[in-house]
């Protein structure tokens, strides 16, 4: 039987079946078991403006996305080209079938099909055959059932979700993303025409492989749109000259570590609206990759940007490259590392609140022992008396350990937890070394801590999911102390070319040059930077000030053109010079100083503590070191000598037995020993 005759009989049978089902086959239609119409779609991560950050493919690596807003001009073009009576037919269009039959008989070959969009949807969701009798009958039955159970808009949406656009692309949005790098909300006539033509034969018309076939198919759509007066002749000619895309564009994969985390925490969600800014995220990912490459082999980097007023995370870069050979899959914003000197501002702020110090207080940077622990400065130099302000700006170790000893390491750990960080102690019990980085913290933790400082000692908990309920940290510092810390950090010398006092920032370098840190804030934003190796091996010569600080200031430059001014001082802030401070704040002394020797107090060298002295009734020899004369000596609370300016002299014998000897200098500082005299 000739092919044309077979086709004629087939179409006649389909027309009869369509008429039968419409007039007398309601029960047959109602009994139709439909395939699932809620197919799996790609999980999408969107930024604060609704722009796509990342999408995840579905089964077999297929990209199938929600259509979203679609250009009405494309929808109009699609219906006019594929199914002119879509809005009026019941799923099967007898007129289109007759037309297709007549064209085939006249031309001796298939010119156009008789399938409606609803029938195409039936085939797509069922992935069934198209050429055999049973396949066509099944398509008609499913199409008629779809028309009874769904609205026209829902059927059209199914087509826009499942139509093939070449390769592993399904749906209009995957098509426009891959071929044009944009969503389908606004399309040129040429783009719309290509997207109408592609689903008819997605592989033989793939623009990247068969550009001539793709162009010819597109132009046929354009020509028909001119005949239908959808396009003018000039619009058609102009669209026909538009270039055909030559490659499939990669789907965006911004903030891969953070989006992985969001999907793990909320696996049920198909759309995740995040607080990130896609444009900023892309710029900073590139910036971190470039900085890590400059820093040396196997060096990675991480960066977080947050608004410390609202708590929103605006960018989160977990590594120098998600698939980079430098263990880029490791999220270094969450990895526990030694924070180096970055906790020092918190400790000074706690000391201010406890009345132990003020920015203008003098503190001793001199050798000191705490049991068996003898801290040293990074450069091994001792500077004597320095202002607290200078000690923090120079990041000296000994002064901050003195303050930590007085505060107690437990108080520092409690403040970290109040700031909603999660410090990790390998030994379980905090020691004085926490002030120099002897505790595990993540970059996220440190940004949270500095956001709290920037917000005045209490601020929002950082978050990255849009519309999340914001929470507040507990107060860790008073507003005056938090402002004083910011004022001190703003006085640090910035990298070359950066403005002065625009940013309150601190750098840090962990033991062995394993981690280089820089964290800073202005009046609205806080940024934290980490550079190092993900495996924790040293980076020779890496310092936070040299490596991370320039990246911090560059990141602020990518964030906005100008720095936001820092907060003004709260009314209760004590802003005076050292001479105007209350006497207890002029020089740091522990609270137990009344019972301990001050570093600048006179030191009784002889007799030593608990000495047994054979004086035989004669005078006692006294030898001193330090202090400011003249000196007075008390024996058992009774003055026995005053006005003595020498540091070696004699005093009257207080008599046999135990005696308490006290030497007091001109400033009221003293030393005491207890001896036994025979």
From TrEMBL:
Q: Which reaction does it catalyse?
A: [GlcNAc-(1->4)-Mur2Ac(oyl-L-Ala-gamma-D-Glu-L-Lys-D-Ala-D-Ala)](n)-di-trans,octa-cis-undecaprenyl diphosphate + beta-D-GlcNAc-(1->4)-Mur2Ac(oyl-L-Ala-gamma-D-Glu-L-Lys-D-Ala-D-Ala)-di-trans,octa-cis-undecaprenyl diphosphate = [GlcNAc-(1->4)-Mur2Ac(oyl-L-Ala-gamma-D-Glu-L-Lys-D-Ala-D-Ala)](n+1)-di-trans,octa-cis-undecaprenyl diphosphate + di-trans,octa-cis-undecaprenyl diphosphate + H(+)
- Keywords associated with the record: Carboxypeptidase, Glycosyltransferase, Hydrolase, Multifunctional enzyme, Protease, Transferase
Q: In which pathway does it act?
A: Cell wall biogenesis; peptidoglycan biosynthesis
Give the EC number(s) under which this enzyme is classified.
2.4.99.28
Instruction: Enumerate the spans annotated as Glycosyl transferase family domain.
Output: 70-226
What InterPro entries does the database record attribute to this sequence? Beta-lactam/transpept-like, Glyco_trans_51, Glycosyltr_51/Transpeptidase, Lysozyme-like_dom_sf, PBP_1c, PBP_C, PBP_transglycosylase, PCN-bd_Tpept
What's its top-level EC category? Answer: transferase
Residue ranges of domain Penicillin-binding C-terminal in the record: 595-675
Keyword Secreted on entry: no
Q: Which residues form the Penicillin-binding protein transpeptidase domain?
A: 301-514
Classification via Pfam families: BiPBP_C, Transgly, Transpeptidase
Q: Which family does it belong to?
A: In the N-terminal section; belongs to the glycosyltransferase 51 family. In the C-terminal section; belongs to the transpeptidase family.
PANTHER family referenced in this protein's UniProt entry, alphabetically: BINDING PROTEIN TRANSPEPTIDASE, PUTATIVE-RELATED (PTHR32282), PENICILLIN-BINDING PROTEIN 1C (PTHR32282:SF15)
Q: Which NCBIfam families match?
A: PBP_1c
Instruction: Specify the protein name.
Output: peptidoglycan glycosyltransferase
Which classification does the entry list for the species? Bacteria, Pseudomonadati, Pseudomonadota, Alphaproteobacteria, Rhodobacterales
Gene that this polypeptide is encoded by? pbpC
């Amino acid at each position: 039987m000739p092919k044309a005759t077979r086709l004629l009989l087939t179409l006649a049978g389909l027309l009869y079946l369509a008429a039968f089902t419409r007039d007398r086959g309601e029960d047959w239609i109602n009994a139709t078991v439909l395939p699932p119409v809620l197919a799996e779609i790609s999980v999408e991560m969107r930024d604060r403006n609704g722009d796509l950050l990342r999408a995840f493919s579905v089964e077999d690596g297929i990209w199938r996305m929600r259509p979203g807003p679609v250009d009405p001009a494309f929808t109009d073009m699609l219906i006019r080209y594929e199914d002119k009576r879509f809005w009026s037919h019941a799923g099967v269009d007898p007129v289109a079938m007759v037309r297709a039959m007549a064209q085939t008989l006249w031309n001796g070959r298939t010119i156009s099909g008789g399938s409606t969009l609803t029938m195409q949807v039936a085939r797509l969701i069922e992935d069934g055959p198209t050429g055999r009798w049973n396949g066509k009958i099944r398509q008609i039955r499913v199409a008629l059932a779809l028309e009874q159970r769904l609205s026209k808009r829902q059927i059209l949406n199914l087509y826009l979700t499942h139509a093939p656009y070449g390769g592993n692309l399904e749906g209009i949005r995957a098509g426009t993303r891959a071929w044009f790098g944009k969503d389908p909300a606004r399309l040129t006539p040429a783009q719309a025409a290509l997207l109408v033509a592609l689903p008819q034969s997605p592989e033989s018309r793939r623009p990247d492989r068969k550009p001539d076939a793709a162009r010819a198919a597109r132009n046929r759509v354009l020509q028909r749109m001119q005949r239908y007066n959808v396009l003018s002749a000039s619009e058609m000619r102009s669209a026909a000259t538009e270039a055909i895309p030559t490659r499939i564009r990669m789907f965006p994969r911004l903030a891969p570590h953070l989006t992985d985390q969001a999907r793990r925490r909320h696996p049920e969600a198909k759309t995740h609206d995040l607080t990130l800014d896609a444009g900023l995220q892309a710029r900073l990912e590139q910036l971190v990759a470039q900085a890590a490459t400059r820093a040396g082999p196997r060096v990675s980097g991480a960066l977080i940007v947050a608004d410390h007023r609202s708590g929103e995370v605006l960018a989160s870069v977990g590594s120098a490259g998600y698939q980079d050979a430098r263990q880029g899959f490791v999220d270094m914003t969450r990895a526990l590392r030694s924070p180096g000197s970055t906790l020092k501002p918190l400790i000074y702020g706690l000391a201010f609140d406890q009345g132990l110090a003020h920015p203008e207080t003098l503190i001793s940077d001199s050798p000191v022992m705490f049991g068996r622990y003898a801290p040293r400065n990074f450069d091994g130099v001792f500077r004597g008396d320095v202002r607290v302000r200078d000690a923090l700006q120079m990041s000296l170790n000994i002064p901050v350990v003195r303050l930590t000893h007085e505060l107690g390491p437990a108080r520092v750990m409690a403040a970290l937890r109040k700031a909603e960080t999660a410090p990790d102690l390998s030994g379980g019990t905090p020691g004085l070394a926490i002030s120099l980085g002897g505790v595990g913290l993540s970059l996220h933790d440190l940004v949270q801590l500095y956001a709290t400082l920037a917000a005045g000692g209490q601020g929002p908990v950082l978050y990255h999911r849009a519309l999340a309920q914001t929470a507040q940290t507990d107060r860790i510092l008073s507003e005056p102390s938090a402002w004083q810390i910011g004022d001190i950090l703003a006085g640090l010398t910035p990298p070359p070319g950066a403005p002065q006092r625009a940013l309150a920032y601190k750098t840090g370098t962990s033991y062995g040059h394993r981690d280089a840190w820089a964290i800073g804030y202005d009046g609205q934003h806080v940024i934290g930077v980490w550079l190092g190796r993900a495996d924790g091996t040293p980076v020779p010569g890496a310092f936070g000030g040299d490596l991370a600080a320039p990246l911090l200031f560059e990141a602020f430059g990518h964030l906005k053109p100008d720095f936001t001014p820092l907060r003004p001082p709260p009314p209760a802030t004590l802003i005076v010079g050292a001479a105007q401070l209350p006497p207890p704040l002029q020089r740091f002394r522990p609270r137990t100083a009344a019972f301990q020797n001050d570093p600048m107090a006179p030191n009784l060298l002889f007799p030593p503590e608990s000495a047994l002295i054979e004086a035989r009734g004669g005078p006692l020899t006294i030898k001193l070191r330090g202090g400011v004369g003249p000196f007075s000596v008390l024996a058992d609370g009774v003055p026995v000598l005053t006005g003595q300016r020498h540091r070696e002299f004699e005093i009257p014998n207080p008599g046999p037995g135990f005696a308490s000897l006290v030497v007091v200098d001109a400033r009221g500082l003293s030393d005491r020993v207890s001896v036994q005299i025979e």
